[in-house]
Amino acid sequence: MSPSVRLQEMIRVIRGARTQGEERGVIQRECAAIRAQFRQADNGTRSHNLAKLLYVHMLGYPAHFGQMECVRLIASPRYNEKRVGYLGAMMLLDEKQDASLLITNSIKNDLSHSSQYVQSLALCTLGCMGSAEMCRDLAPEIDRLLRASNSYIKKKAALCAVHIVRKVPELGELFTPASRSLLSEKNHGESVVICLALLILPAVHCLLLSIMKGLVMSGYSPEHNVAGISDPFLQVSDLNNLFYQSSNLPVYDSIFIYCFFIQVATNTDSSKTAGSAVLYETVLTVMDIKSESGLRVLAVNILGRFLLNNDRNIRYISMTSLQKIVQTDHNAVQRHRGTIVDCLKDQDASVKRRALELSLALVSAVNIRSLMKELLLFLSSCPPELRAHTTSGIFNAAERYAPSQRWHIDTILHVLTTAGGDVRDETVPNLIQLITTATELHCYTVHKLYRALIADISVQSLVQVACWCIGEYGDLLLRGECEETEPVQVAEDDVLDALETVLQSHMSSPATRGFALTATMKLSTRITHNVDRIRSIVSIYGSCIDVELQQRAVEYNALFKKYDHMRYVIVYEKNGVTLKLQTDRQTDTGMTITLTATNSTDREITSLTLQAAVPKSVQLQMKAPSGDVIPAHGLGQVTQTVLLNNPNKVSLKMRVRVCYTSQDFVCQDTVQIDSFPSPAW
């Protein structure tokens, strides 16, 4: 590529490079040619070469060697060269580099140039990269230009003055008289920017607020009217500045501002976009400064009106702002709960998401029931991308504000039924923990989960919890008694059929099959007539292709073979009293038997005594019981150990007499045990 090509041709060649290496080679050759021409005398191509170098800089390649060329071009009398030089200075120079100080004198000269365009170049450069030293040296020139008759120059000078005040705050006093003069003009454009930088000065601050008050309270003003709103740009800009300068406001100024906010909120038409912008900036400022509660409520009400706006963008920013203040102004936001919930039905996905987040933040112990109904209704029809967030929020709210354990369990089960595939991984263990602690609801929960399992086995999280619950409380299910809900008459085969369906279903994940297999194994201690069927089901999965499931099946089979004698069989069950017998073979002729009594009624059982009789050839010794009172609701048990010695190894039989007092009447029964869970001899 020739070094004298035009900028457009260089851009075309660089864009046409097919690899990064090819692009790098083109740029290196062009930069070398530009360096060589910079070292030559002025041949009229300096601005042309610097323009190409600036494009190279925009691509991220080093172009620092063009800094001095920028200084030379700025000093040039030709406008086209001066323009490129100033552009290069703004791109290649900053206040940390010494080269920036070399252009101070050129900028000062150009600020007094007869052409407004040359003055504009100098003002833009100073406002972009002027250092503190440059600002101090050139501030008087800027103050002079603020009083110029040319409105174009005054706007540029105002922007430059903002930069100077930010760099050197003490120079703000210099521009105060000029800013007062600008505020008195009909055109506020050039005055707004400088006054925003000078609002730290009380005199200018009060003057600007007085003018704004006049704009709000005055009628139609053709010079400043935008869609029926008087100079919304000035109002928004000043309110935006108050948002950042609120910590510097004196007390007397704050009182004036409070009154001003009320006037803005009362007199601004929110049906117009310009009016909504003014009101929104008012809300942001009120929420940032330490305002009174009444003023904050007013701000929340403004946002509440925004929720009724037909423009979705306005509804969106309203809910975004309410989300930020819902924790500090909860009661004020709570008044608009109905409108917020209605936004859940909006067709726009972003509005729905904001409405969901805000609705979840509004949940409290007072409204948990009513608001949860709305959230569950939304869950049934919400977009797939919002389901995970919705379920997570519902779970958190239910955990914090659940009015009862039953309501908590019902809510989670409803979520699992509706969107079980979108819940978090920890939902299953958390629900299991909740069910475990809700002792009085075990019967209710196992009946409800059994119905859900029979109805649908596609929701894996629900199936896993149902399998666990059936394995733990299957005896309550088989008993067919439940006060909290209509009981289901379930046979042992029905329960095993349901679990076997889960094990064989193609919809079941390996984890779900593991839950079902474990539940099946647990039922072997809670049923009496289908232990062999359970043993058969478990043995099938001893050769399963899934390693985890295979390991469980092998271990459960080992339990059947080695420890079957430790299994409970129920020997007595009447009046809520259950007596279980567990055998443990200790020696060739000796055996230890443990009798365990539990009470499922709502009153304690007292005066419990157990007596046992065995054949004459068997020696029997009964140890002292652990007590004679059985706590209600299954919260405790009474155990008694029986030692047997059978030297002749005869067939073992036992007769047990059970005596106890229940609700002021004495009960006495005798049970015959003709077989034991595992033959000892």
From TrEMBL:
GO terms for cellular component: AP-1 adaptor complex. InterPro entries: Adaptor_Complx_Large_Subunit, AP1_complex_gsu, ARM-like, ARM-type_fold, Clathrin/coatomer_adapt-like_N, Clathrin_a/b/g-adaptin_app_Ig, Clathrin_app_Ig-like_sf, GAE_dom. It comes from Oncorhynchus kisutch. This is AP-1 complex subunit gamma. Keywords: Cytoplasmic vesicle, Golgi apparatus, Membrane, Protein transport, Transport. It is found in: Cytoplasmic vesicle membrane; Endomembrane system; Golgi apparatus. The keyword Protease does not apply. Its main location: membrane. One of its GO terms (biological process) is vesicle-mediated transport. Residues 564-677 form the GAE domain. It is a peripheral membrane protein. Belongs to the adaptor complexes large subunit family. SUPFAM superfamilies: ARM repeat, Clathrin adaptor appendage domain. It comes from the Eukaryota. It holds the Pfam family Alpha_adaptinC2.
